[in-house]
Amino acid sequence: MNYMPGTASLIEDIDKKHLVLLRDGRTLIGYLRSIDQFANLVLHQTVERIHVGKKYGDIPRGIFVVRGENVVLLGEIDLEKESDTPLQQVSIEEILEEQRVEQQTKQEAEKLKVQALKERGLSVPRVDTLDEY
Amino acid sequence: MARCSQNLIDSQAVLEDYFLENESLPMEEMAVGAVNPLGKMDCIEDLNLMEQGPGEPCGHQIPEKASRIHEEEDAKEEGEEEEEEKEENELGDPAVLSAIHGAQRGDKGSPRLKAPSGLGMSPVSLHFLCQTMDYLSPISFRSTYPSASSPARHFGPQLPSPDPSLFYSPPASWPPRFSLPSHQTQLHPQHQRILQKQRQEQQSSHKHQSPRVGKLWSQKPDPYAGLMNQREKDWVIKVQMVQLQSENPELDDYYYQEYYQKLERKQADEELFGRRGRLESPKLVTPYIQKTEDYESVVRIEGSLGQVAVSTCFGPRRAIDAVSHGSQEQDSAIYNQKLQVLYRIEKMFLQLLKLEENQKGMLAKSYFYELQRKQLEKIYQELRTGDQDNSEEAANGFLQVLSVRKGKVLVARLLLLLPRDQAVHLVLSITSHLPFLIRRDTADQALHMLFKPMGKCINLLAFSELLQGLQGLMVLQPGSQERPITVVLQNQFGISLLYTLLSHGEQLVSLNCSLTQHSSSDLAAWTDMVVLIAWEISHMSTASLAEPLVVPSNLPSLFCRYVDKQIVQQLEARMDYAPVATDLTYLGKLSCPPTYQSVRAEVEEGKIH
């Protein structure tokens, strides 16, 4: 805001910890090191956080360069309040397992739904884009 | 842990040195170094993120080779530095720091691109990495732009480093001075002052914060801060500013300009109230450029039918104008006529917008008044006559304009700008054709936007003109039993207008008590009118009577004077005196007529949907 009053800019967010939500549904947490005019981001010490229910798991990923158009939103993380969460951190294996189970139940529910619709003579076209999550 | 960091240092140094110096290294070593960068990163992550002890020990065979390579390169200088930094900073990664140092000294020069095929990466990604490395090795890195200015500050005390220009951040340099050439950014002098003030504030607030924040961060200073140096930040800002340039900010950036003007007005008001220390908010000032390129919005190719959509950089797909330039269509007369009306409205609207824009811009320049007057005259003529000379046709044209929603908006805004006589003329033609307009308006329900400007004009009416207007309502139409007033009373706009007229008449009559002011015939006509209207209202069922927008407060007294008790009672039952007409009484007082700006603003904001 100091540089260009009345506008929004990522310049003030540099070197701060951010949570970035990508279009494919991934959640990345890392230090924003560099930007450019397209809002391409360079994230440092990035961690991919997977949430399942009340549990989450962190997968360390290193340095990420994200193309700007794939970012849904990003926000600064308050480092003091970061640990102040009701969520429970679990290990990577556990969270991946939880995720798999969740995906499976979702798929089964979806299959039942499609089956029920088919019996009634309706069909929902498959959504093939990646934006659905 | 020290060993791990040693491994990391070496492998990092290997990577960076390769790209900076571009010496071809033995293939297998490079493959090793390149193939497992992520593995090394994991090690760092564990260290830094988890804040725990040492992570998993990394592979052992790599450090040996890496250290050999490391020694091959200019190990002396960097080795020394790394020793120092390792001692001082246990958690950081001095390799990256050393890379920055090396780059900073500028002894690496520009990396030449040579992609050995044995490397695990494609030439493209190599090229990209080189480019990112470029950011670490800017062309000329001078101490005037300390790179770690703001971010390093955020993380508390700086780690002592052998290169003070890199990490020392003199507070006076933040926010950074604009290094951009003057013709590109014009910082308002107030803006400069504000930035300085903010700098000082930041300093003081930082001093406040640092004991608290510093505690949190003193154990973990951020060695990676400042990867994006000031020059690059300025560059990004420059690019963004370029995108904001426009030659007509009032048009392109309307909302920000309006917002800023509102803010300034509010601050001026606050200052007026005696509040000292006016907070000046900074304004985004972008340079105004002259767009030298002129492009044709509509391209006509000879012999073609219609228009061609031309795509330029200003508009990838230019919309084809909705106006037909070609020959008139002969097929449907009604369709044609409707189009003609719409076309006229569009033309007049453009003229009106230009006029309003001029008025907004110019404050008090006399020759602009002349220009405005001429423009107004043009619009008025267009509205009244179109192409016709016959007054009947002219009225018709006017009514057709009013039948369209946009036409109503146009007339509402125009009424505020027109001189008195012309405005009165329009108002009278509206009132005389009110039933027709009401019938045409059932779809839009948009007549309400005319109410305010018409109310303002009504207060300027002379008595005779007022009578003329009212008489138009009472005239029995040929071929129908009822008077127009019945239709008017059933419509909200109509009844509100009627009340406004009556109120104004009452005002005129009561203001000038001497009967010589108005001719006796006028007064007689007025009395008859009032009685008739009262009769009509009382004989209409309450259900069908429309709820007026505003009920002027002087109406009951008016009716009481001219009409007998029985009817007055019925009138009272029908007219709710509850909504106190503050607007109308204020307008009616005529002591201080509402300012042009306020009424116009209200019309634009409130009434026009």
UniProtKB/TrEMBL annotation, chain A:
Compartments where found: Cytoplasm; Cytoplasm, P-body
Pfam families xrefs: LSM (PF01423)
Domain called Sm: residue spans: 5-80
CDD domains cross-referenced by the UniProt entry: LSm1
Domain of life: Eukaryota
Keywords: Cytoplasm, mRNA processing, mRNA splicing, Phosphoprotein, Ribonucleoprotein, RNA-binding
Coiled-coil region list: none
Single annotated GO MF: mRNA binding
InterPro entries in the record: Lsm1, LSM_dom_sf, PTHR15588, Sm, Sm_dom_euk/arc
One GO-annotated biological process of the protein: RNA splicing
CC terms in the record's Gene Ontology section: Lsm1-7-Pat1 complex; nucleus; P-body; ribonucleoprotein complex
Family: Belongs to the snRNP Sm proteins family.
Assembly: Interacts with SLBP; interaction with SLBP occurs when histone mRNA is being rapidly degraded during the S phase. LSm subunits form a heteromer with a donut shape.
The name this protein goes by in its record: U6 snRNA-associated Sm-like protein LSm1
Species the sequence originates in: Phascolarctos cinereus
TrEMBL record, chain B:
Location within or outside the cell: Cytoplasm; Nucleus
Chief place where the protein resides: cytoplasm
One of the Pfam families matching this protein, by short name: PAT1
mRNA decay factor PAT1 domain segment(s): 300-445
One annotated GO biological process: P-body assembly
Biased composition (Basic and acidic residues): 62-73
GO terms, molecular function: RNA binding
Highest rank taxon of the organism: Eukaryota
Alphabetically ordered keywords of this record: Cytoplasm, Nucleus, RNA-binding
Stated family: Belongs to the PAT1 family.
Protein name (Swiss-Prot/TrEMBL): Protein PAT1 homolog 2 isoform X1
Gene behind this protein: PATL2
